[in-house]
Amino acid sequence: MELPVFKIPSGFISCRACGRRALKIRWKNNMNVCPMCGHYSPLTAYERLSLVFDKGSFRELDREIKASDPLKFPGYQDKIRDQEKKTGLRESVVSGVGSIGGIKTVVSVQDSRFFMGSMSRAVGEKITEAVEYAEANRLPLIIFSASGGARMQEGIFSLMQMAKTSAAVQQFSEHGGLFISYLTHPTTGGVTASFASLGDITLAEPGALIGFAGPRVIEQTIGEKLPKGFQRSEYLEQQGFVDRIVERKDMRAVLIDLLQLHVDSSRREMA
């Protein structure tokens, strides 16, 4: 499957941070970063994949895996259909294989439009399948995380994906695989507590909220005020949790540099 061709948008977008308006085409050309104040807005999974992969190299993996309803939760099937219709996705993660700077790589991207990127049984399966594909084919792995946590409609089936994905990443690591974890806004809950925190290299976008529980929940629990910027990527970089904050305009170039540095030249495709 080829990545979709995005039409040139018309009209204006108002920034949620500064409130100023700019043409949609300016937002698109600026990779969904506000042209006025630099505030980051989400990218769809396919938009991010199109920015990362070499043109024409993308092939989607496990497209047939879709959200299901293991607990027969009331109203969940209707919500799944609504999400599919609204986003054009079958789940909140898209995985694919292609080349980045001529280096064949497996990439999974969570899309926060679909149930806020929450972790379902299908999401855990797609992430695990991507990790196992990378291991079987001796390819580097990049996962872009964006999640509100577990999907409550799937209960324990959702929570089980934390162990499942973590075990897959651990095996991949033990067999010498390179895993770059790329944290975007927001990366919270079970995703943070599993595969998103297991990267050999951990990158993050500016201003991203990264943590298990939200700051308000923590403050209410411990009865103390948290430091300014707590759980934002800049604070976590200072604490050593994040290796580097990467601006979106530099995303592809930084990934190419890291892949060229860490991937054996004999395993690279010709650019």
Blueprint (SSEs and pairs):
Blueprint: E1 12-14, E2 21-23, H1 24-29, H2 45-52, E3 59-61, H3 76-87, E4 93-100, E5 103-110, H4 121-136, E6 141-147, H5 155-174, E7 179-188, H6 189-192, E8 201-204, E9 210-211, H7 215-222, H8 233-238, E10 244-245, H9 251-262
Helix pairs in contact: 4-5
Description:
The chain is of the alpha/beta class. The chain folds into two domains: 1-41, no CATH class; 42-267, Alpha-Beta Complex (2-enoyl-CoA Hydratase, Chain A, domain 1), CATH 3.90.226.10. It has helices at residues 24-29, 45-52, 76-87, 121-136, 155-174, 189-192, 215-222, 233-238, 251-262; strands spanning 12-14, 21-23, 59-61, 93-100, 103-110, 141-147, 179-188, 201-204, 210-211, 244-245. The strands form two sheets. Strands 3, 4, 5, 6, 7, 8, 9 and 10 form an eight-stranded mixed β-sheet that branches. The chain is globular. The two termini are 20 Å apart. The model has no long low-confidence stretch (mean pLDDT 93).
Keywords:
271 residues, alpha/beta, 2-enoyl-CoA Hydratase, Chain A, domain 1, eight-stranded mixed beta sheet, two-stranded antiparallel ribbon, 9 helices, globular
Write a concise synopsis of the structure shown.
The chain has 271 residues and is an alpha/beta fold. It has helices spanning 24-29, 45-52, 76-87, 121-136, 155-174, 189-192, 215-222, 233-238, 251-262, and strands at residues 12-14, 21-23, 59-61, 93-100, 103-110, 141-147, 179-188, 201-204, 210-211, 244-245. The strands form two sheets. Strands 3, 4, 5, 6, 7, 8, 9 and 10 form an eight-stranded mixed beta sheet that branches. The protein has a two-stranded antiparallel ribbon with strand order 1-2.
